[in-house]
Amino acid sequence: MAKQYEIPVGAQHISLLEPLHFKFTTENEKIVGTTANLFYVHRGIEKACCSKFKFRQVSFVVGRVCGLCSISHATAYSQVAEKLIKIEIPRRAKYLRMLVIELDRIHSHLLCLSHVAENSGFEALFMRTMQYREPFMELLEAVCGNRIQYDFSIVGGVARDLKSAVSRMILERLKRFKPQLDELVDIYQNNWSLSLKNKGAGAITKEDAMRLNVVGPFARAAGLEIDVRNETEDLLPWKETGFKIVTETAGDAYARNLLRLREINVSMHIIENIINGLPESALITETKAFPDGEAVARLEAPRGELFYYAKGNKTQILERLKIKAPTFSNIPAMVEGFRENEYGSVPAIIASYDPCLSCTAR
Amino acid sequence: MKTFFKAIGNLFRKPVTIKYPFEKTYIPDDYRGMIGFNENLCIWCRRCELACPPGAIVFSQNMEGRQTYHYNKAVCIFCDECIRTCPKEGALFQTNQPATFALKKDNINNGWNHLFEEAIESRAIYAAEKKRLAAERTAGVKKAVEENNHKT
Predict the structure, then answer these.
(1) A128 Cβ under 8 Å from any chain B Cβ
(2) Which of A162, A277, A350, B12 is the most buried (most CB within 10 A)?
(3) Is the pLDDT of residue B44 over 70?
(4) Percent of chain A, pLDDT > 70?
């Protein structure tokens, strides 16, 4: 048996985007054991939501849980609060929520892809992917009024309407993005030097994914058909908008890249359908009821299933709010995925997991 | 080979990035910028203060009962909740001006916390004073009635 070394990565490391810490036990270059510690950024948001803020203000607070999936958090909370105060939101508000969620998914996936390229040592591809991401940030700014903190979903509906000029802009940008996406697919699929770092790296089998309860693109890349958009119809009508589940089989970083690119394609299809068939109705349902009882809501964030639980006691302030972010479910599989890999491919693997620690630690 | 020609071609293409402080970035017309306030239209109901999630709006009150609007651009999260709650259209409105940076000399955190507390306190003092005056007035009325009764 070769001599074993322990190598820590994080909590601050040049290739990490987020404050997470892994301790690798290696034999020569091969990783044989991993321990993870991911809770460096606890901010006490759940407690603040149950003590300081009124339930209508909480949707702005949870929007700041995460910068990349701000809209997913705000929407999931709004859905929970709407269940608690027992209202049905207008149809147009549902479709506008879906539109922003899908735009958000595109920019989040492009960010993840660019970081995989960067951490694999392909700086030019990183720049190119970020270049193609910028128009989507501008679209989100045009739709929501802000680049990152959207504050679009509020309890009872959505905050802003979609202007016709903006919807034309979205369609035009999507049309321009299609050849660019094909170019990205070509590079991520066929580039030989990128495949050296990504093929077989961080692979996880379907059985392991099932056993370790993986969610999101991580699970779908391993072949599991897990997608909240495929399972629920009561809160947001995904299937009407042409949603189709996509899966890959390999379960490695390469498969995750391709899966994300294919999901961007599906998202673009959904956005086009939503804009072409946007129903006319009010934007918000007004009510003066107070939250009462318990409710849960599930939503497919860019990284996987987001879960909200809330309990009300007929006052302005909630009794309990629980947020379970997708990365939290993926931690055991993240540890498992490093096994039998080279230490040198760790940055690329971490980036391909797409961890979101500010969601997880809240 | 394809990549090589692409790289050569990129030498003659315009850069994608912009020179930020000299060129302006993209800002839509309805960008969520600073909140404007029209004092003439305000009905002083203080609903915006109750609705504001971070507490960036506060009203102080002087002894004559006149209220003053205070707004902190550094605390504001530009969520528009105040505008949605406002019962009087046009009293609070959205501008597309991004907030300017808060400087150290503005003393934005401590100064604002101090101002916030003072404003709440000023309202409490005014309310107490009003209550006292009202009590005095009722006492005076009562006294007058009693005197009146006594006379008759």
Answers:
(1) no
(2) A350
(3) yes
(4) 100
**Residue A333 one-letter amino acid:** A
Helices (H) and strands (E) in chain A, counts: 14, 8
Say if B47 is an interface residue toward chain A (CB within 8 Å): no
pLDDT in tens, A30-83: 888 888 887 787 888 888 888 888 888 888 888 888 888 888 888 989 888 888
Strand partners, A296: A309
Domain count within chain A: 1
Distance separating alpha carbons of residues B92 and B45, to the nearest angstrom: 12
Optimal mutation site among B20, B32, B57, B95, interface A, most CBs of chain A within 10 A = B32
Strand order in the sheet with A320-324: A292-301, A304-313, A320-324
User: Cα A54 vs. chain centroid, distance in angstroms?
Assistant: 26
Cα–Cα distances in angstroms (integers) from residue B69 to residues A93, A160, B35, B38, B39, in the given order: 33, 26, 12, 10, 8
Range of the domain at A313: 42-334
- Measuring CA to CA, how many Å separate B104 from each of B107, B108, B109, B110, B111? 5, 7, 9, 11, 11
Please count the other Cβ atoms lying within 10 Å of the Cβ belonging to residue A217: 31
Supply the CATH number for residue A150's domain.
1.10.645.10
How far apart (Å, rounded) are the C-alpha atoms in residues B107 and A270?
A: 48
DSSP labels for chain B? -HHHHHHHHHTTSPPSS--TTTSPPP--TT---PEEE-TTT-----HHHHH-SS--EEEEE-TTS-EEEEE-TTT-----HHHHH-SSBTTEEE--PPPPPPPGGG-HHHHHHHHHHHHHHHHHHHHHHHHHHHHHHHHHHHHHHHHHHHH-
pLDDT band (50, 70, 90) for residue A156? confident
- Spacing of C-alpha B72 from chain mean position: 6
Res. B3: pLDDT tops 80: no
Please report the number of interchain residue pairs, chain A to chain B, with beta-carbon separation below 8 angstroms.
43
In a domain, A10, yes or no: no
Mean pLDDT of A201-212: 84
**How many Cβ atoms are within 10 Å of A228's Cβ, its own excluded?**
21
Tell me which chain B residue has its CA closest to the CA of residue A169.
B28
A307 within some domain: yes
For residue A58, the distance in angstroms to the closest alpha carbon of chain B comes to 8
A104 lies in a domain?
A: yes
Average pLDDT, integer, range B103-129 = 82
Question: Does a structural domain hold residue A359?
Answer: no
